[in-house]
Structures are given as C-alpha cells and as structure tokens.
Amino acid sequence: MTYVITGSCIKDDSCIEVCPVDCIHPIPGDPDFETAEQLYIDPAVCIDCDACVEACPVDAIFADFEIPEKHSYALGLNAEFFADEGTAQRTAERTAA
Amino acid sequence: MAGTKPRVAIVGAGPAGAFAADRLLSRHGNVEIDLFERLPTPWGLLRGGVAPDHQEIKRLDETFDRETLGRGCRFLGNVEVGVDISHAEVMRHYSAAIYATGAQTDKSLGIPGEELPGSWAATEFVAWYNGHPDYRGLEFDLSSRRAVVIGNGNVAADVTRMLTLSPEALERTDVADHALAALRDSRIEEVVVLGRRGPAQAAFTSAELRELGRLDGVDLLVDSEEVQLDSLSQAWLSEEGTFTARKNVELLSDFAGGKRTPGARRRIVLRFLRSPVEIGGADRVESIVVARNRLVRTEDGAIRPRPVEGDPETIACGLVLRSVGYQAVPLPEVPFDEQSYVLPNDRGRVIGPDGRPLAGVYTVGWIKRGPTGILGTNKRDAEETVACLAEDLAAGAVPVPPNPDRAQIDALLAERCPNLVSGDGWRAIDAAEVVRGRNERRPRVKLASREDLLAAAGLGRSA
C-alpha cells in the first residue's frame, strides 16, 4: 500500500519534516516547489508508516484503501507526479549533484 | 531590561501572523508575543477567505490555536493598529513589530461600467458569504439567470462553486446565515467564467478545476475550440509547463464537448481567451462585453493576451464578480512600496527611506511578498522573517522600548479599546458558534456582526 496526498494539501511541509524515507516531494528549494499546487507521495518509496498522516494539520493524507470518494483521483495523481517528465528530470539532476 | 523577555507585537492574526508567532516561539522561545487583530476573531482568510465547503482546510485553525494561543501568545482582537494605537505607540511598547496585514483590497479592471450596481470584487462576495462583519450588509442581486466571473484563479473557482452549490450542500457548511438565505433563493442558472489567456495559463489548481467538474447537479461546459492549444502554448507546456498546467489542460480537454444534462440545476461555462471590455446597463449590470484574444510571447518571455480584431461579444448577465488579484494597502507611519504594493523589505526586515533596515520593524505574508502562494507558503515566509528577528535580537540590534512592561501597553489598551477581545473572549465566541452549529448539524454557525461577536465575548455594546 501507500499513503496519498489529496488536493486539500496546503504545502506547509509538516509531512516532509517527519517522513523517515523522504518520499514526499517536491521539497522546499526544488525548482518546482513554488509552482506545485500540493505535495505528493512517491508510492514506490512510501513505507506506510503513518507519520505524515499524524503531522498533516488539514487531514489531507489518506491510506490508499481509505481515500474518500471525492479524492479518488489522488492515488493516480501522486504516482503520476513521479512519472512526470519534469519530476523525473529533477530527480535525476539531484541524484547527479 | 536584564532578565525580562523581549516583547514582540504581531499586527494581523491571519495565517502569516499565526505562522510568524508559531515560528518565533519554536525558534526563539524566549519572547512574549501579542497578536493584534482588527477583527474580534483571529485567523484572517482561514476564517474569512477559504470557502465554506473546504472545511478540511479550515481545520488548520486547531494548529494555529495550539501553536500560538496555546503557547502563551496573547490575542488582542478588535484593536486596529494605525487607528486605535499608532505605529509609534507600538514601537514605544515593544522591542519589535511584525506587520502581517495581508492584501486587503482587490485590483480593478479599469473598464467602463465597472462601478455599476451588480458589479463587485469577488473578494467582497467572499467576505460576505464567510461572515466578515464589515461585509454582512452587502446585498448581492441573485435574481438574474446568469452571473459572470472574471478571472481564472482559485478565488474565481471558489465564488463559482458558491454560486452553483445546492442549498443542501451549503447547509452542511459554515457559510454565513445571511448568505445561506440569499443563495437558497438564488435564481442564477449559469455562471460564465472568463479567462484572458488559454487553458495552459489558467491559474486554477487542478484540484479546484477538477472539483468544478464534479458538482452535484451542475454541468461544466467548455467549448472544444477554445481549449485547443495554440502552438505557443503547446511548446510552452512541453518545455516549461508545470505538472499542474499539464493536468489542467488534460482536465479541460476531458470536459470539452460535454453536453448539457437534462434536469441539471445549473451550469458552469468556462471561456478562454476572452477579456471584458465594458460592463453594460442603464442603472445596474445588464450585460458584459467581451473581446477575443490571441497569445503572444513578449520580450520578457511571458505569454500574454493581445486583442484580436473582430466584433466583441455581448453576454447578458445581472451579476459580475471580478477576481483579478488582491492588493495591499499602505499602513500609517510605515514605509510602503507604491510600485509593488508591499512593505519594502529585505528578507522581512522593513527598509526605511534611507535604504537601511528600520530597527525593530519586520513584515511577513502578503504585505511582505505580494499576494502569492498558498497557506503553507506563509510558514516558510515566516521562517525567513523570524530568522532575521532572532539574529537581530541576539546581536542586540533591536531597541529596548521606553515602555517595555506588559502593564504599560495594557493600560494604554484599556484606555483606548474598552471592547478589546482577549484570547478568552475569542474562545467564548468560538464555543458559541460551534454550539449553534451543533443544533443544525453544521461545523459552526458564524456570528456575523460585531455586536453579536462582542456580546458572545462578554463585552458591552459600546464604551
């Protein structure tokens, strides 16, 4: 499974601070951080620890099997963010640096 | 003043002020903070801006409460700095002041007819439906069949949803009672949303755009031809476009060509590459004239709209809400940048006319950086300002004020502001609203007049 961030996200970074595996992106300082409308969880890296859910001040994060119907799109969207060309490129640049 | 904590005044208890108090307590615990607010209630646009149907976001108030008032920060509500007490008086009582007054007015369109009754700033509509006490008396005429919203940002999306949500959906929110009554009787069937540029440049978040397409009993109509990207936008999208812009274009292509559903209550029509040129009507809004645009890349690299020759289109409507940006207003006695509409500052240190930082004066939020970003943006913005303040405190670069004792500011406030709403007063207001809401199965029922708010806080009607 994975956790998923929905469109209620206010980008206050609380989840980034507590994530033990740094699977939440973009992070402050990333070139696409300011333009990102929300943060996303990389399903390939998430270890289902629940820390981000506890930290989120607006309850924007759900386990993939508990996503409310109105946010059902969010599972695909989080994965898609990491598959997106721009994200992939940025990740490659950071790894190279 | 050895042995006492420096005292800091934060002016404006909106998200920027709240995050500044939170960050200051976290990073530099050894301070006392007074949070000044001109309204009787704290949290600014979280209470008065965020749409009532986005209750999950409003839950941030619990964090603000816990991290500020819950850690000893004092709320001084119903006190307007610049009116009830001056900037100079603040500086005589505090080591430092952090201005967090936001951007309180809207930008105008600058077109004929903008002043006609029925033409409003979307922010006025927002303040009205959110129960801002200064806006409760406004009367929005919702008796015509069509409303036009100008702008493609999230405020435009919010007001469009509020105009189209069903009474049943609104009844589950904390929308102000006066607005609920008016919206229940609304005869608006169609909301037309105008964007100057194309789908790739729309400032909506994809979450808000998606939401417009999922409203119960509301059709979302987009013209297939208008969502076709021109070559400029296509190139931009594939080379520099954001993830959100790509999602928006995808969503709009999915919406395009949709048909009206028989029996739908209302419809939203998104129009692109259209600029309003005139609002028409004899003594109130009857129509809006819109011209067609094409996109060009200007010398600075930005993609901007340019008018296309041809007959403008006239859209009959009875309500126009313009949502083309917020603007800050100057504060008495504090420097103001008339070009950028912010307090001139370096990482949050307010800069004086001589180009040097004004000792002890700081800024955060929209009045510091302009009206950009979302709620969480203010947390990082506050980090930056607070880091400067902490550095100045450590370096002894913050002046010791002549009247540094809490009792001295309290005496002045007691004289000037007999109806000051304390943290306890706000808690009483909050509890009263939540109790009223419980009876109606709503998150809260807002008290929307100063009189009612002050009464709930246990204060008299007048001095």
Secondary structure: elements and pairs:
The complex is a heterodimer of chains A (97) and B (463).
Chain A: E1 3-5, H1 14-18, E2 24-25, E3 40-41, H2 51-55, E4 61-63, H3 74-83, H4 85-96
Chain B: E1 7-11, H1 15-27, E2 32-37, H2 44-48, H3 55-58, H4 60-67, E3 74-77, H5 87-93, E4 96-99, E5 105-106, E6 119-121, H6 122-129, E7 146-150, H7 154-164, H8 167-170, H9 177-184, E8 190-194, H10 206-212, E9 218-222, H11 224-227, H12 231-239, H13 243-255, E10 266-271, E11 274-280, E12 287-297, E13 303-307, E14 313-316, E15 319-322, E16 326-327, E17 345-346, E18 349-351, E19 357-363, H14 366-369, H15 377-394, H16 406-416, H17 423-439, H18 450-456
Parallel strand pairs in B: 1-2, 1-4, 2-3, 4-19, 6-15, 7-8, 7-15, 8-10, 9-10
Antiparallel strand pairs in B: 5-16, 11-12, 12-13, 12-14, 17-18, 18-19
Features:
heterodimer, A: 97 residues, alpha+beta, Alpha-Beta Plaits, 10% strand, B: 463 residues, alpha/beta, Rossmann fold, FAD/NAD(P)-binding domain, 2 domains, 6-stranded parallel beta sheet
Briefly characterize the structure.
Chain A is α+β, with helices and mostly antiparallel strands and 97 residues long. Chain A is built from 4 helices and 4 strands; from the N terminus they run βαββαβαα.
